[in-house]
Write a structure and sequence with these properties.
The chain is mainly alpha-helical. It has one domain. It is 79% helix and 0% strand. The N and C termini lie far apart (40 Å).
Length: 285
């Protein structure tokens, strides 16, 4: 593993700690807001009046520049799986503060995530020399936008709130778009193009906001064990696949090891996110 990948992993791990601890504080507050505010800006306004939610938001915002910095050092195929390591922090917090036991499932999930990240690190995929571009990027982003807009489309057609499934898909799509936009921000900053970097940062913020709104709405009606696992798996897997389809990253002969590591991280993430010790923090019980 080269020094850039190692440094990128360290910075991405710091971003993961900010994201997951911030998310836990946000989710706790989302549970106490009346469901009539679902998918409305009034949900964000009410949450913004809560100090604990603001603290969580500040932590989440601090994670973004760290993620962008990580992407200037290491490829998206490595950075996104490393972000899943944030769940290990939630596992420790759940054990300490919720007194939830750590059993065989949690240990197996932890081993899968750590092993998957290690496999990708050993494969040492290289950062793309050029940014994602062209028709592939347009198609990937358009599909993510369509998936993120699904709950509002269903509500318009059916005149009632969207069910949990589309909300979960939309949350994952919004977060995946934000991750791809972060990679584009990193590429533009390296080229010294501040204007395009600012535009992609705004796009990432909008996508992350939509993802947040959909996930918080889903948590109002569904247990965290049904919301967190698919959303987190989508956050890890979709940006990596999107970057590959958009021509931004090619893995060459290391591809089998990268695929295997990605599968391990996805499986471990799904298992760990469904654990009471983690879901109790991510979904506030």
């Amino acid at each position: 593993m080269d020094g850039g990948n190692l440094a990128g992993m360290a910075v991405a791990a710091a971003a993961a700690a900010c994201y997951e601890s911030g998310y836990a504080l946000q989710a706790i507050e989302a549970r106490v807001v009346d469901r009539r505010h679902a998918l409305r800006l009034s949900l964000a306004r009410r949450l913004a009046a809560r100090r604990r939610w603001l603290t969580g938001t500040a932590l989440s915002l601090a994670g973004y520049p760290l993620q962008v910095a990580a992407l200037t050092l290491a490829p998206l195929a490595l950075v996104q799986p490393v972000l899943a390591l944030g769940l290990l922090l939630l596992l420790a917090l759940g054990r300490c503060y919720l007194r939830e036991p750590v059993g065989r499932r949690e240990l197996l999930a932890t081993a899968a995530i750590v092993g998957g990240v290690a496999a990708i690190a050993v494969a040492a995929p290289q950062r793309a020399e050029g940014a994602m571009h062209g028709r592939g990027l347009v198609v990937v982003l358009a599909l993510l936008v369509a998936a993120a807009a699904l709950p509002w489309l269903l509500r318009a057609l059916r005149r009632r709130d969207a069910p949990g499934g589309p909300l979960v898909v939309a949350a994952g799509a919004g977060d995946a778009f934000a991750a791809l936009a972060a990679a584009l921000v990193a590429a533009e900053l390296e080229r010294g193009r501040v204007g395009p970097a600012a535009a992609w940062t705004a796009a990432a913020a909008a996508a992350a906001g939509i993802g947040f709104l959909c996930e918080m709405t889903a948590l109002q009606s569904l247990p965290a064990t049904r919301v967190a696992p698919p959303v987190l798996v989508l956050q890890v897997v979709v940006p990596v696949l999107g970057a590959r389809l958009a021509g931004g990253e090619q893995w060459g002969s290391a591809a089998p090891l990268v695929w295997s590591g990605l599968a391990l991280v996805a499986a471990g993430t799904a298992l760990l996110a469904a654990s009471p010790a983690v879901s109790g923090l991510r979904g506030a019980g």
